[in-house]
Write a structure and sequence with these properties.
This protein is of the alpha/beta class. It is built from 21 helices and 13 strands. Helix 4 (about 115-120) packs across helix 6 (about 165-180). Strand 4 (about 85-90) and strand 5 (about 95-100) form a beta hairpin. It has a five-stranded parallel sheet with strand order 6-3-2-7-8, with helices on both faces. A three-stranded mixed sheet has the order 5-4-11, sandwiched between helices.
Length: about 500
């Protein structure tokens, strides 16, 4: 078995692709905040492909961890010279491993915020990118306003020279660049949020304005925040993935990444200081990202929510199990065709029916082993952004909403924290205590869950939604998930 590092690259199994460029020649051009599996399977992979062509050698990535839990990742990658294996898992069982070499450093902000700020302030850094999850943008799920009462944000505003949040770190770096006469870097969000660049701009501007009103105005006018749509199913790395890489290919990697073959990145071309030539490696660089991102959020992401709670309650534990079940496939396609797709404007160059069928194929890939537990996590950040807008649109236009209402009801039932066999469900959500408390009232007060206007706005006031939601919730309690879905599918959306 060969330990992964620079010295051992030439000794790896010949089936493992390795960087053909000289990593010693790489220089930093991007600082990335939030080095998770998705970033390493997506943006870092695209940069590695450019580097394989002899391009983008001045766009090396410096990773940044801002959460205390990021220390493990920082230590693992540092011990491997910031190399890691990316394993593409094909549905037919073929594994395609490659070593990604585009990351050149990883800084841990809780231990040395100053080093992070100065790295971002370096004139060589032209892009600061983000994958910090939906919750990392610190905005209210209904109003969309920046939360100035967040304790970490308040602490950063009180001591802006010693920040701990991504907002504090990035804004302080921008301040130093301005003071030194260095043009501001571009802030590039790579998170699954509609209008992610616009959201990032609002949130960072709000933080900067709270620090200093003139600073906020300068940031809003001078810093670029391009929008992007990103897509690649990337499950959490499991111990079995580490073992499999070792056994199949003889590579010792403390934290590899596994992913599906499909990948997509649609990027708004707004980079005042330049950017890598992403279009050379398949990135769609466009003027308007919105049609693509709405397609992805309302079909792929919302469909994940449609399958996960029903699937878990029915006894499944993996996404591929759910999407190999014809009943669930019928329900998902019904949602996508009758509820999600009618909310979309035409998407240039995309056949929506082909896209919908491709999604089912991707979800059904048995090699990915994407857990329903992962897809069920942080629902309070996901459903308000991915599914609730579909419901509002359909209500406003007289469209079908009963499948969407059923998904919300399945979340409410899941949030009770006990499955249909009486076994406990581990709820992973920032609002766990609130959600489980109100879900406990589901049987006695069916509207309890959707009375939460922080998450659902005024949906509870719409009779069509209320009736569909309560019917499904009652059926889940009385008949269970599978029988409820059978009734919905058989009656084309009604119980």
């Amino acid at each position: 078995m060969t330990r992964l590092n620079n010295h051992n690259l030439g000794n790896l199994n010949g089936d493992v692709a390795i960087p053909c460029y000289e990593r010693a020649k790489l220089t930093p051009g991007i600082v990335h905040v939030g080095v998770g599996g998705f970033h390493r399977a997506h943006q870092a992979m695209y940069l590695d492909e450019l580097m394989q062509q002899g391009l983008a050698l001045d766009w090396g990535i410096v990773g940044v961890g801002v959460m205390l839990g990021d220390k493990r990742m920082q230590q693992a990658l540092a011990a491997q010279d910031y190399l890691y294996a990316l394993v593409v898992k094909h549905p037919n069982g073929q594994y395609e491993p490659r070593v990604i070499g585009s990351m050149v450093n990883y800084l841990f902000a809780p231990e040395d915020a100053e080093a992070v700020i100065e790295q971002m302030a370096d004139p060589a850094i032209r892009i600061v990118s983000l994958t910090v999850t939906e919750g990392g943008y610190n905005f209210h799920p209904v109003t969309g306003e920046f939360n100035l009462e967040n304790p970490q944000v308040r602490e950063d505003l009180a001591h802006p020279e010693k920040p701990s949040t991504s907002f504090g770190l990035i804004v302080e770096a921008l301040v130093r660049r301005r003071e030194r006469g260095i043009a501001p870097f571009t802030v590039m969000s790579c998170d699954n949020i509609q209008g992610n660049g616009d959201v990032a701009k609002r949130m960072f501007t709000a933080y900067a304005r709270a620090r200093d009103s003139q600073l906020g105005e300068w940031l809003a006018s001078e810093v670029a925040f391009p929008n992007a749509m990103v897509d690649r199913i990337t499950p959490v790395t499991a111990p079995a993935d580490i073992d499999e890489l070792s056994q199949r290919f003889g590579v010792e990697d403390a934290w590899p990444v596994v992913c599906e073959p499909f990948t997509q990145w649609v990027l708004e071309d707004h980079f005042p200081l330049g950017r890598p030539r992403f279009e050379q490696v398949g990135v769609q660089v466009v003027e308007d990202v919105e049609p693509y991102e709405l397609m992805k959020l309302r079909l792929l992401n919302a469909s994940h929510q449609a399958l996960t709670y029903f699937g878990y309650l029915a006894g499944y534990r993996y996404a591929h199990e759910v999407c190999q079940d014809p009943l669930f496939v019928d329900f998902l396609l019904g949602y996508m065709r009758e509820e999600g797709s009618p909310t979309l404007a035409p998407v240039p160059g995309v056949d929506l029916e082909a896209y919908r069928l491709t999604l089912i194929e991707r979800f059904a890939n048995p090699e990915i082993k994407d857990t329903l537990a992962r897809l069920c996590a942080e629902s309070s950040d996901r459903i308000p952004k991915w599914l609730v807008p579909v419901i509002h649109h359909q209500l406003a236009h007289g469209g079908e909403i009963k499948r969407s209402a059923a998904v919300v009801a399945s979340w409410a039932r899941y949030a009770e924290g006990v499955d249909e066999q009486g076994e406990p469900i581990e709820i992973v959500d920032r609002l766990k205590e609130t959600l489980t408390a109100i879900a406990a009232e589901n049987r006695t007060r069916p509207s309890a869950f959707i009375d939460n206007r922080e998450l659902f706005g005024d949906l509870v006031d719409h009779p069509r939604f209320y009736e569909a939601y309560v019917q499904t919730l009652n059926s889940l309690h009385k008949h269970g998930a599978r029988a409820t879905l059978e009734a919905l599918v058989a009656s084309k959306g009604t119980l």
